[in-house]
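Field log, afternoon session.

UNIT: design team B
ACTIVITY: writing a sequence onto a fixed backbone
BACKBONE:
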C-alpha cells in the first residue's frame, strides 16, 4: 500500500509540474491510473466520485505538506484547476564558502567508516555539482583529523529509517541487569552517539514514558509497525540532553568507590578526588549519574562501591544477572 501511494503521489506531482495550464479534477482523474481504478465499475452509485474526491484531496494535502507549491486557479467558466509552477518549486542555487565546504567535507568523512558512507559520498558529490567550490578540498584543511563514527549494530539502519519516517518499531531488548531480553514497543525520536556507543531515544508505549536504549543491547530483528506516533517528538536539543542523562554524562551527585591501584584508568580520569588506601587499593570520589552502575560493572572485581547504598545495590544486581548468564 505504501508503494502504491508513493507512486500515485509521484504521478500527481509530475502531472501538476508538467502542465502549462491548470488541470481540472476530471483531467487529473483520467490521466492517473490509480484514480481511474478508484473510479472504476463496481464502486456503487456515486461511490466512484466520492472515492476519487477523497483520494485526490488527501494526495493534494500530502504533496503540499512535502513542500510542493500547488496553485488553485478558476477559469472563466468557473471550473477549478490545479498546477505546480516550476519557478515556484525550484530551490535557489547552492552557494558555499571555503569554511562551509570544509565543514561538510569533514561531516562526510565522519561517515566513511559507517553504514552511511555511500549516502555521505553521494551527498557531497551533489553539493559539489550544485555549487561547492571546485578549488576547495573539503578534506585537506583537516588532514590531521581522522573523525570516525563506527556503526556495527545491525539495528542502526532500520532504526535510522524509522526515525526519519516517524514509524513505531518493535524489538527485543536486554537490559544490563536482566538475564533475558524483553519486547519493547517504541516510538523512535533520534539516534545519538555517546562515547562510541549508539543510543535510541524515544517513547516507550508499554511504559508510557520516554526511554533510551543502547543499540548493542537490541537483540534480533527490528520490526516496523505501520502506525503513527502518538507522543509529541521533542526538539533535538532536548533529545540530546535525555540521551546524555541516560548515558551517564550528566551527574547531579557523587559516589564513593574502592579501586585497585593498577586498574580503572577511565574512572580515575573522571574522579574528583583520589586517596590511597594501601594494600593495592585507592578510594575515589566520582560523579554519579544515570548509567554509572552499568559502567562500574564493566570493571568487575577491580571496583567495590562504598556509597550510596542504592548504587551498590544496583551494581550487585547487575553482577548477579551476569553470573546467572
Amino acid at each position: 500500500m505504501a508503494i502504491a501511494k508513493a507512486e500515485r503521489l509521484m504521478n500527481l506531482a509530475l502531472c501538476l509540474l508538467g502542465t502549462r495550464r491548470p488541470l481540472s479534477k476530471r483531467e487529473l482523474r483520467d490521466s492517473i491510473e490509480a484514480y481511474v481504478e478508484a473510479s472504476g465499475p463496481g464502486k456503487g452509485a456515486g461511490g466512484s466520485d466520492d472515492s476519487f474526491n477523497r483520494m485526490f484531496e488527501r494526495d493534494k494535502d500530502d504533496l503540499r505538506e512535502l513542500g510542493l507549491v500547488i496553485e488553485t486557479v478558476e477559469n472563466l467558466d468557473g471550473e477549478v484547476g490545479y498546477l505546480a509552477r516550476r519557478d515556484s518549486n525550484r530551490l535557489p542555487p547552492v552557494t558555499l564558502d571555503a569554511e562551509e565546504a570544509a565543514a561538510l567535507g569533514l561531516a562526510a568523512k565522519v561517515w566513511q567508516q559507517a553504514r552511511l558512507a555511500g549516502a555521505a559520498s553521494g551527498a557531497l558529490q551533489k553539493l559539489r555539482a550544485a555549487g561547492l567550490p571546485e578549488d576547495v578540498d573539503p578534506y585537506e584543511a583537516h588532514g590531521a583529523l581522522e573523525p570516525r563514527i563506527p556503526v556495527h549494530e545491525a539495528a542502526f539502519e532500520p532504526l535510522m529509517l524509522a526515525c526519519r519516517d516517524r514509524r513505531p518499531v518493535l524489538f527485543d531488548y536486554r537490559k544490563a541487569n536482566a538475564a533475558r531480553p524483553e519486547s519493547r514497543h517504541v516510538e523512535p525520536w533520534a539516534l545519538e552517539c555517546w562515547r562510541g556507543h549508539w543510543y535510541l531515544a524515544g517513547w516507550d508505549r508499554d511504559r508510557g514514558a520516554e526511554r533510551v536504549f543502547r543499540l548493542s543491547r537490541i537483540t534480533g530483528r527490528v520490526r516496523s509497525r505501520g502506525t503513527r506516533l502518538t507522543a509529541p517528538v521533542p526538539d533535538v536539543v532536548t533529545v540530546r540532553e535525555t540521551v546524555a542523562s541516560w548515558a551517564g554524562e550528566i551527574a547531579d551527585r557523587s559516589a564513593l568507590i574502592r579501586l585497585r591501584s593498577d586498574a580503572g584508568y577511565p574512572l580515575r580520569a573522571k574522579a574528583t578526588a583520589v586517596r590511597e588506601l594501601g594494600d593495592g587499593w585507592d578510594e575515589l570520589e566520582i560523579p554519579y549519574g544515570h548509567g554509572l552502575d552499568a559502567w562500574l560493572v564493566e570493571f568487575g572485581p577491580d571496583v567495590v562501591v562504598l556509597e550510596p547504598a542504592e548504587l551498590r545495590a544496583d551494581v550487585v544486581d547487575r553482577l548477579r544477572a551476569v553470573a546467572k548468564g
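LOG NOTE: The longest strand covers residues 182-194.
NEXT ACTIVITY: expression trials, pending approval
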